[in-house]
Write a structure and sequence with these properties.
Belongs to the hexokinase family. By secondary structure, the protein is α/β, with parallel strands linked by helices. It contains 14 helices and 13 strands. A hairpin with a 3-residue loop joins strand 2 and strand 3. Helix 1 runs parallel beside helix 11, helix 5 packs across helix 14 and helix 8 packs across helix 9.
């Protein structure tokens, strides 16, 4: 071999080696990045872990906090609010009634016609619209004028001059925010949640605000009851099945109410009702316990929210927040590794990933996870390999399973408080030997998250059986109540008239 040829050969070897070295280096780097992603996922799984032992601690904490909230005003983060609802609709109601429901994302209007028998419940003209986002931080006047205007349009559609002054319509106002009631038809807003911020309304009577707006429009409608959405769901549940004693909503936010004995509401001594009971609105979104599995993502979400240090439980289990927890995990993965490609500014936007998209990704059953790819593309993350899309699905699973399981612990906590969990309640004082009859107990559930996100619903129902055990679970029936909050509130107004 000539001298020149030797030089060329040597150079070729050096070049080949350096190409190989670069490739090996890249592969190592890519492996390291992949390892980072796997570690973030593992850390998330550990932090969100909810073995049944931990859930039982949450159950106990919920029952204890319920007691504390009933014992004294401000005794717990659970407000345990009086609703002044002591009798629930029983099926004998008659007539036509209306409901207007301001939820967290939607407002709904409907009419029910009742024929005096349980089987004769005719729900008519259900209208459901997204709440225009500018209303969430507008003024009281703008918000209520809008609601009154929407009601007017609804009534106009009934036709035949039915807006005539002679016909007075009885209306339920279903209001999904914490209210301190002074009667069934009046109460003041305690605080906003779920991103609403109209500060001037805090402390004002909500029913009065709506009645004023209706009067200004000349609508002959009477706000006969101001009803928390959970109480509406309980009313519909009870109407169909009198074993219904608990209602829970999993929508944009989350809350629960239940039927309590008045003598257990210690903070209101001397409270007398004909039934000896009253529905208590727990406002359980604000529940907190050190046993809740909290992650750095929850801490950051809370700190950056408009209501930080508030609604800690809601922020782990409700529809408004699950998407943002998932987004935060994906964002961290993309920042600490480049497997999601160049950084996306969209992914940094709070609440850009909705829980609807989380369920669409979680329930994507295409072999290539095309729905996941599509949603990631909308977030400015394109062309991620299949294994990364699988990681995203896993993140959705971890966050939603935790939510469903904690929701189940919350429900079991209520059952424990009222002695329906098979243990006799925490202060029942019954002897261990006493044979206890487990009563059939129906839990009415509603809300977009529960109705539409199968994996959430299944995680919740599975965990409830795990916590209560097979035997007791047979007596606990979870019933879905589509539009229960609104329909039930109208039924409640009907029961007030009869
Ligand atoms: P509101 O909270 O206004 O009363 P809903 O009870 O209908 O309204 O709940 C709406 C919320 O439910 C949405 O904001 C979303 O968080 C959740 N949701 C609705 N559809 C789905 C879905 N397909 N998958 C997951 N979550 C959903
Ligand atoms: Mg709702």
């Amino acid at each position: 071999m000539g001298k020149v040829a030797v030089v060329f050969a040597a150079a070729a070897v050096v070049a080949a080696c350096s190409v190989a070295a670069v490739m090996v280096g890249r592969r190592m780097k890519s492996r390291r990045k992949w390892r980072t992603v796997v570690e973030i996922l593992k850390e998330l799984e550990e932090a969100c872990d909810t073995p049944v032992g931990r859930l039982r601690q949450v159950v106990d904490a919920m029952a204890v906090e319920m007691h504390a909230g009933l014992a004294s005003e401000g005794g717990s983060k659970l407000k345990m609010l009086l609703t002044f609802v002591d009798d629930l609709p029983n099926g004998t109601e008659k007539g036509t009634y209306y409901a207007l429901h301001l939820g967290g994302t939607y407002f709904r209007i409907l009419r029910v016609h009742l024929g005096g028998e349980r089987s004769y419940l005719d729900v008519q003209d259900v209208e459901r619209h997204p709440i225009p986002s500018h209303l969430m931080n507008s003024t009281s006047e703008v918000l209520f004028n809008f609601l009154a205007f929407s009601l007017e349009r609804f009534i106009e559609k009934e036709g035949n001059g039915s807006n005539s002054q002679g016909v007075k319509r009885e209306l339920a106002f279903t209001f999904s925010f914490p209210v301190k009631h002074t009667s069934i038809s009046s109460g003041v807003l305690i605080k906003w949640t779920k991103g609403f911020e109209i500060s001037e309304m805090v402390g004002n009577d909500i029913a009065e605000c709506l009645q004023g707006a209706l009067n200004r429009r000349g609508l002959n409608m009477h706000v006969a009851a101001l009803v928390n959405d959970t109480v509406g769901a309980l009313s519909l549940g009870y109407y169909h099945d009198p074993d219904t004693v608990v209602a829970v909503v999993f929508g944009t936010g989350s809350n629960a109410c239940y039927l309590e004995r008045t003598d257990a509401i210690i903070k209101c001594q001397g409270l007398l009702t004909t039934s000896g009971c009253m529905v208590v609105n727990m406002e359980w979104g604000n529940f907190w316990s050190s046993h809740l599995p909290r992650t750095s993502y929850d801490i950051d979400l809370d700190a950056e929210s408009s209501n930080s240090n508030d609604m800690g439980f809601e922020k782990m289990i409700a529809g408004m927040y699950l998407g943002d927890i998932v987004r935060r995990v994906i964002l961290r993965m993309s920042q600490e590794s480049d497997i999601f490609g160049p950084s996306s500014s969209v992914l940094s936007e709070p609440y850009v990933l909705r829980t609807n998209s989380v369920s669409a990704m979680h329930e994507d059953d295409t072999s290539e996870l095309q729905e996941v790819a599509r949603i990631l593309k909308d977030l400015g993350v394109s062309d991620v390999p299949l294994k990364v899309r699988k990681v995203v699905v896993k993140v959705c699973d971890v966050v939603t399973r935790r939510a469903g399981r904690l929701a189940a612990a919350g429900i079991a906590g209520i059952l424990k408080k009222i002695g329906r969990d098979g243990s006799g309640g925490i202060t029942s004082g019954r002897s261990r030997n006493e044979v206890q009859m487990q009563k059939r107990t129906v839990v009415a559930v509603e809300g977009g998250l529960y109705m539409n996100y199968t994996m959430f619903r299944e995680s919740m129902e599975e965990a409830l059986v795990e916590i209560l055990g097979e035997e007791v679970s047979q007596y606990v029936i979870v019933k879905a109540m589509e539009d229960g909050s609104s329909i039930g509130s109208a039924l409640l107004v009907a029961s007030l008239q009869s």
